[in-house]
Amino acid sequence: MEISTVSDEEIIKLWDESKIFESEIVHKKPKYFITVPYPYTSGALHIGHARSYTLGDVTARYYRLKGFNVLFPMAFHITGTPILAISKRIAQDDKKMLAMHKEYVSIYEEDENKINEIVESFKNPEALANYYAKVIIADFKRMGYSIDWRRKFNTGEKFYNKFVEWQYKKFATQNLIIKGKHAVYFCPSCNNPVTTDDIKGGDELDIKMTEYYLIKEKIASENAHENCYLIAATLRPETVFGITNLWVNPEKIYVKVNVRNAGIDEMWLVSKKASEKLKKQGFEVNIIDEFKGENLIGKKAMTPLTNKEVEILKANFVDDDVATGVVNSVPGHAPYDYVALRDLGINFAQEPNFRMIDSKIKVEEVVKGIKNQTDEKLEDVTQELYKDEFYNGLMNENCGEFKGMKVAVAKEKVAERLKSLNLLSKIYENGIKDKDGDVIKGTCRCGTELEIRVLEDQWFLNYADDGWKNLAKKILKSIKIDPEIYRTGFVNAIEWLHEWPCTRNRGLGTKFPLDNKWMIESLSDSTIYMAFYTIAHLLRNLTVEELDNKFFDFVFLGKKFDGCEKYKNIRETFLYYYPMDERRTGIAHISNHLTFSLFHHAAIFPENLWPKKISLNEMLISEGKKMSKSLGNVIPLKNACEKFGADTVRLHLCYAADTSSTLDWKEKDVLATKSKIDEFVNFIKSVDGYASYEYRDMDKWLISKFNRHLEEFLNLMDKSEIRGAVQKIFYEFFNDIKWYLRRTEPNKKVPKEISEEWVKVMSIFIPFTCERLWGYIGKGNFVSAEGSLKVDKEAINENAESMENMLIELIDNVRNFVKLIEKHKKPTKVFIYFAEDWKRELFSEIKKGKGIKDVMADEKFKRHSKDVINMMKKTHQQDIKFIPTIEEEGGKIEGAKEFLEKELNLKVEIDVNADYDPKETRKFAMPLKPAIYIE
RNA sequence: GCGGGGGUACCCAAGCGGUCAACGGGGCAGGACUUAAGAUCCUGUGUGCGUAAGCCUUCGUGGGUUCGAUUCCCAUCCCCCGCACCA
Questions:
Q1: How far is the CA of A31 from the C1' of B40 (A)?
Q2: What is the model's pLDDT at position A745?
Q3: Contact, A919 CB vs strand B, < 7 Å
Q4: Which of A188, A305, A647, A749 has the largest count of CB atoms under 10 Å?
């Protein structure tokens, strides 16, 4: 087949057949193992996904071209609830979900019936995952990704489960997994915990739960033997120092309940509704007595830490369905309390502990304009005051040992203190207050309002473990981060990570090996799977039973067992590819996935197998806006490929922005990239057919330029500065080509060697185009399989480049003057003069690093002292690379005389001795910068 | 508030102590080619001045360090992202 004319699709087929992207051990060759996170198979890929993958593929191709044995694998993530949630909603005939997936499927299918049939099949989560995996593979191939597909798998497959189980058993033996309490959203009618995917509007709304601190305030009881507490709920435990009274709603039902706390029975007074919530949130609660709130009014309770008796007052604004229905009144710092007391006509400002936080904004000031406790503005001023106090406020002398502490710090400290005195507990409420003070509560997709339950036996990865943290820090020290600016992100992430709940009640993936009722959470099963890639295809030949702990211990850690010989090649394969040389992904993953990956590598693998480099890129937006379904500006990857061609999409993703800035996908710019590729094709084709011949000067210049750009290109690629690399080898070299063509017209012969090398390098970015061109220029095999790329350093000719540069600048200069002169008369002739020999000698002195004093010692310079000082001021040692003789300069211009005359439309007179110099312009001439006179 | 990143010409965007009036792309204007359009190529594109190698003012704003700052330091204003159990 004539490859020079075939379509992208046919090239993909040829690549597949030739297996050039399948990597096998080659001991003589250096290897390069690069991965990009596997996609989640719940929908079609869009152009935003393609950025990381394309940069990953470009890197893979780059190293392949440099002669590395590259492994670039891919798999699919199906762990977690989203796929299940979609299936369920499709099964329930959810219109929105159906429409969305019909749209996705219609990207790939034309026939309406077929589309419906496929979406119908999505009722089965497995079918959904498989379908999208299939189309993603097609998309990746269409994009020309050089992936070794033999290693693909999905995270629900048995052999992968075995691998993850092995990993978690390892953590268990290292005591890195702990068990504890964890609050979750729970749907009472579905009878299971829910995640974002099950919450109505969960993907758009920010549904969160509110964590209330329960503060136990001792209250007298008829029974002197029991410990009885009024349980006030607050978001601000540090304000206990400012409590002047308590609020209870007289109209609502309250209860006295027996709560068993750490084996001790206590009596709590809370609203009846609160008692039910407490039960659900893991408290052992028995109702002893039930009464109206008014029964509590007038009684006194003791505030903790300060041990002050305060009175319970009535307040109708207290909601018995929020937390406990008992509220601390802190008028000095809570506008609501201030206004409520003012409404009651109670004077409280005399209380010695009225003010307990010093900050700029004062409660008395913010409430000035507030009419009464139902005023809507109260919410605004509360937020304003709280924000100021929290971030800028300091605890004052009323706060005992906490005096002088920042409020933000004191909040934690006071809570800890109360906890240690057994005077603090927590309760969770559905929803969090938004900016307007409205509580947005989570509702299950089934329509039921969610409640909060506290799970007692949730499993956590204990990232707070000091030993583990230190290992993660150590790994970070040794790993390369590109661009380096993101390193602090990792430092912070490692520092802040603590217990991470790593199990879920539901979802696809791997069962938690220590407790089979749990599933491993989706971020937690994807931390060291890069190691799995190296051997995934070999494991297919084994039975699942064989993949036990011994097996993985041997393959990954080298622990031998009887019969391990059989798996020697698997161990060898792993060791050949590991450690991973590079992981490429978006910066959004720094705070979780990537940092988890560091932790897990550190815990499982020996130091010599830790990953070597993480390369990162920013996100992508479209025409200045974030891509989102609601804006309808999501561009499916397949559509982009069809519209612009995969090569254009690839090159544009590489060139349109630096990796560390957001890439704005603008159609206008994409089209410009496309036409640049067309230009490239035309150029390479125009080269065809010329045999090698004696190089002319301009050929040497072009070869020099090419090699210089190539050298810079290699440097930039090694630093993952892909945009800069493209600019050098494509855009800048293109400008050189244009110049070359102008200079050598009409004899448009470009050295064939350059076009070959150029096609090779460009195949990294635009592989389809280059594959065709490779065929066109008569090379066999695939350019994508080429494994050599060398800079011909010998060919880089600094002097030739400088001389050509002189010419370019000369033209510029002449044009400038022509513009000026044209206003007065029509120029016809240009005289060119060259710098006198003494200037050349002076340059050579400067180049040697001589100073003014050294130079002035010489009589021949002293004569021109004024000019010498001037020149030395302007000219720096490092700027002087080459000092030609007058003859060389003259020769260069002479050789280009015809060209100059044509370009400038002037007669050119080369006056080496400046015999005719009416305005004495020769004095302006410098080495490599001839002077000109125009008339 | 904390943490991170950033503010560069009409727009996007590189530069991160001297070669910078500032790479590259887009746009715009003029020219070549063409019956025309398109494509392609060339030229120009901060301002004001100059028939001669320059001068003036400019890289958010205001200071400072330096022989020299778009680049370093300080202050200040503005924008974006993260602050978690969500993939």
A1: 43
A2: 63
A3: yes
A4: A647
